Automatic annotation (TrEMBL):
Keywords: Hydrolase, Protease. PANTHER family: PARKINSON DISEASE PROTEIN 7 HOMOLOG (PTHR48094:SF12), PROTEIN/NUCLEIC ACID DEGLYCASE DJ-1-RELATED (PTHR48094). This is Intracellular protease I. It holds the Pfam family DJ-1_PfpI. The keyword Hydrolase applies.
């Protein structure tokens, strides 16, 4: 059975960017583990609650088949977080899917893994992607090799389907 780790802010993450891709994956039997900078209850922008089972520094990439960075205003705490950036690199080097939705794409840019890759992000992150060497497309969803990026909540379900397809 595949296992995927969702990196989620402790608060103000975008609810539907979390629960829609999670549902797509879990409906096919994939185990989704949520990780953050704290364990216990996490709260989304619109009141959705979930539970972090792992601290991001405890994540072993060998235990997971893909990593997903969830967007929303809260995700800015990961933009320069050593562990978040290292994990993106570790998964990328192992040729495992690395994905982000909304503003969380800035994490991938800051990790240095978007150089020469087509990518998209919520418009506020466009300059960070370009600075990180990405080929910014502005498309709702972008897949370039093992990197999957999505623009925002409107494509959260399609984002989940793209992650699912990458695991086949």
């Amino acid at each position: 059975m595949n296992r995927v780790v969702f990196i989620t802010a402790p608060e103000i993450f975008r609810d539907e960017e979390y629960y829609k891709p999670k549902k797509v994956l879990e409906d096919t039997g994939i185990e989704v583990i949520t990780a953050s900078v704290k364990t216990g209850e996490l709260r989304g922008r619109f009141g959705f609650k979930t539970t972090s089972m792992l601290l991001i520094q405890e994540i072993n990439p060998n235990d997971f088949d893909a990593i997903v960075y969830i967007g929303g205003n809260g995700s800015v705490i990961f933009f320069d977080n050593h562990y978040a950036l290292k994990l993106a690199n570790d998964f990328f080097k192992q040729r495992k899917p690395v994905s982000s939705i909304c503003i969380a794409g800035v994490i991938l840019a800051n990790a240095g893994i978007l150089k020469g890759k087509k990518a998209t992000v919520f418009i506020d992150g466009k300059e960070a992607l370009i600075k990180g060497g990405a080929i910014y497309t502005g498309n709702p969803l972008e897949i370039d090799g093992n990197i999957i990026t999505a623009k925002g909540p409107d494509v959260a379900e399609d984002f989940g389907k793209a992650i699912l397809k990458s695991l086949e």
